[in-house]
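Example record

One chain of 384 residues, shown exactly as stored in the release files.
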Amino acid sequence: MKGTIIEYLKEYADVSLAQEPMSDVDSLVLCQFSYLKFDGLVPPVTENARPVSLQQIYEHPDYEKLYGDERYEKENRALFEAMRRCVRFRNMKLNCYINIIENQADFETQFSAVTFLLEDGAMYVAYRGTDETIVGWKEDFNMAFLSPVPGQEFAIKYLNTVTERMPRDFYIGGHSKGGNLAVYAAMNCDPSVQERIIKIYSMDGPGFRPEVLERCDFARIEEKTCKILPHSSLVGMLFEKDIHYQVVESRTFGLAQHNPFTWLVRDGHFETVSDIYEARRFMDDTLNQWILSLDEESLRIFVDTLFQVLSASESDNLIDFTANLKRSLTGVLGAMKDLDEDTQKALKQTVKSLFEIAGLRMKQELKTRPLKRETKSKSAEPSL
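Predicted structure tokens for this chain:
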């Protein structure tokens, strides 16, 4: 029977890591767990302190502060309780927590990470990602034109610091922006650290511009990298074209699939499907082609203006934005009228190029469709 990561933890409550080694599902559990607010509960990376157990956190006077994110409070509480009762994680220790929030004129960033010491002797370095807030998604889109972003630089420093202090072999991963940070840190960490990596996980994290992959020599870590996306991925398909990934079935639709609590598990493994939805893939490929066609300044203006306009929609997250589309668009149109003439012109020109690319790609798709149908019928493969 299909379930979520919480049902998985309950089903495998008596199965240790010695019996069943770390799996892709376990990785998602830890990536989601890194979203909890460990401030004051887990020793900071700035102190060389003893790690703490889940039970110590549970008994801490400030335990309730873990659930500062009200959006997923119910699910996160269930996750913590399931982990505390599961032999795979109940004796796990936590250390080296960091949470940096910087809001300066030239950039905004939020960086957080925590290290899990697993009972089998390995450790897992987990980077916190973004949620559905519009501000959080802006940081994902910033990666389209800035490299490195401040969070990526923090990620490298954090990994080198933690692995020097605790010389174990390790997994590294994250969800959303956290997945991008994990891959970036793995590409750019000290060579001696890189050799100790067991596996790198990017859970629906944005990718990298081609020149970044080349400059950072992604080929050195490619075989250790595991990219996992939901069926209708947007964030995870930013700059993903030729990199191998696996696709997980979700119990929901659209942007809501970015939520790890919707990913489906059966018999201890993700319930996978053949690929991203065809319509979603078309949009993702078009967006990537468009981003790569623009110069840095055009991209910067577009991203800054886009999120300025989205912020005027009276929605603070993209799920509410799409759920109340009519109200959201009214706010957006009003905000666009308030932009200065040069910014409006640049924005319209940038968006126009997106539609032009989409039109060209649609014409190419229509030309190749008969050939695709013929190829499928010959190979007797089922269509999506």
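Notes: The chain is about 45% helix and 15% strand.
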